[in-house]
Design goal:
The chain is α+β, with helices and mostly antiparallel strands. The chain folds into four domains: about 180 residues, Beta Polymerase, domain 2; about 80 residues, no CATH class; about 130 residues, Alpha-Beta Plaits (2-Layer Sandwich), CATH 3.30.70; about 150 residues, no CATH class. It is built from 19 helices and 20 strands. The chain has a five-stranded mixed beta sheet. Helix 9 packs parallel to helix 12. It starts with a strand and ends with a helix. InterPro entries: MJ1316 (IPR040459). This is MJ1316 RNA cyclic group end recognition domain-containing protein. It holds the Pfam family MJ1316.
Amino acid sequence: MANLHHGSWSYSTSATAQDLLPPSRREKMESLSPDQKLEELSSIFQKILRGSLDSSSDDISEDEDPGFMSTKKARKAALPCLSFSPVHALLLGLETFKEEILKCIVFGNISSDSFIEIFWDIVENENKRNWGTLAVYEAEKLEAPSFLVCFQNQLFEIKYIGGCDTLVTEYPKVTDASDDFLEDEENWVPEAVQEVVKMMKRGLEIRKNLEKFPAIRNSYSYIRRWVSIRGLAQDLPDTQIFKLLLEYQKKDPKLIAAGESGDPSSSALIKQFFEHTANKIDPLLAHVDPAKYDSFRTEEWENMLLELDSLSLSKKMDVAHIVQVHLTYNGVSQMKGAQWLLTVQRSLTEWKKKLPMAIPYKVSVKMWPQRLVQRDATPSDDVYEGIFVFGIQPLDTPLTDHDLEWIRTYLNDFFTSYYVDEERGDRFVRVAINDPSDLIICTKKWPRQVLTAEKVNDSDSDSDETIKKRRKPKPNTKPNRKRGGIENVEYVEGDIENMPIKVKANRFRPATEVLARLKFDQKYNLDEWVIGYMDRVRAKILEKPAADWDRDTTAEEFIPEHRIEYFKRYDAESKEGGVARGEMILWQKNAKLDRIFGKNDPLVESV
């Protein structure tokens, strides 16, 4: 299947607008927990692997083979054995944000290459039954390969660790293994794996304690939201919040009651947090009377979260200067826009660490965790403008207006050179400092790109020599002319204003014109289309998303358009319990089929 779009995501690295308040008890009851989703994902893998064992024994009976059971046991030992194990927040059962990536480790007795092969086979098999149930967004082929997948609308990062033959065969649930078993040299458990498993076992012990004192989880949920709204996640990571709450409970065992999830136990923990920790990292609390939290109840806490969220950005950040990096995207492909935003977002996180060394002033730099937009922006705006915000605080002498202009110019040139493609003309960057604009968390959702084994392993194999011979096309300067009494407008590929406007009804349109229409006619969603083309090296037809088709002849992945064989549309329709997809070829060269320019345009019929 072609690499298409899937899902609807904010691409947030922190809390989204939906995470402002904790989910209600009803919301929790109406959906599967992350634990249950991981268990179901694991069962899909185990079911297929067990099926391999059963099918291998179908042609053998105990009557025919006296050693039937030993043979079956030997075959079972030779088959892949995988153990899915949650880590971090998923292991502890802590509440997570809507788009938070939950992590798990798969221990196995096969090589990394074999796991990758099995993984893609299972993904393909599952999507044949119900497309979109299990989607792969990212894949890294390392010594310990990892995949970012979406299952039941939950993001999971799956990391594989091989070389665990004895461990996974003796203990399908690796945390059941004793320390003596792990450390026994005869069991061949690598030291690194031993440490990981021991860490997970400690996490399970902590989880048992959390089951006795659910108020810790409840307090964690509120405090983590407060940290996110205040933009203090860099100063107080979620793991640190959890450790602080455990310390409060350990120092004063009478602080909270066993079995009590809400007030007054939660209030007692929250009070401890504000008295001993929050006031050290949040300047806004310097003038707040600690007695305010003496009778802090859940309802008051939720009101405080809403009140904090309504504050202006300048009050939330409390820094001398605010830098806004405006990213504007006006392209036709939502998926391309999402990929660009995600790339910039990740690189800005790394770049923030280097900024203090890049400019000739002593400053500290703070990055706001969410992408923001103007208050009057809507998710349906034709042109999208997202804003990343940095706070700059001088460490010695204040910055003058001249200093700030130097920083603005430097940053603007830097971002433009890295993140703007002048040839495409659909991506722009602008930097502003101390702009008083009223900003809010961006609520726009974007699709994510779906990977397949073919997309990861294959690419069009034009030789370097062929690429070197490519040249940019010269603009066509020929005047308009008439042919057969019908006006035909000559145009430069990709130029919307010069697209043909009148054609013979019976003329079979070439792929060039079809692609231009899909790109620039607003009634088409380019992300729903794929292009089938003949790969000249493999001598077979491959598919490529229409949004990824590069028409620049100097581009590394350029494919001549005369090799296009068909245009196919995938039609998405949401259903309860999954996503169904239909596919239809609407233009095909060999069959002279054209339902895009012809009278049978399916989009025209459906309007």
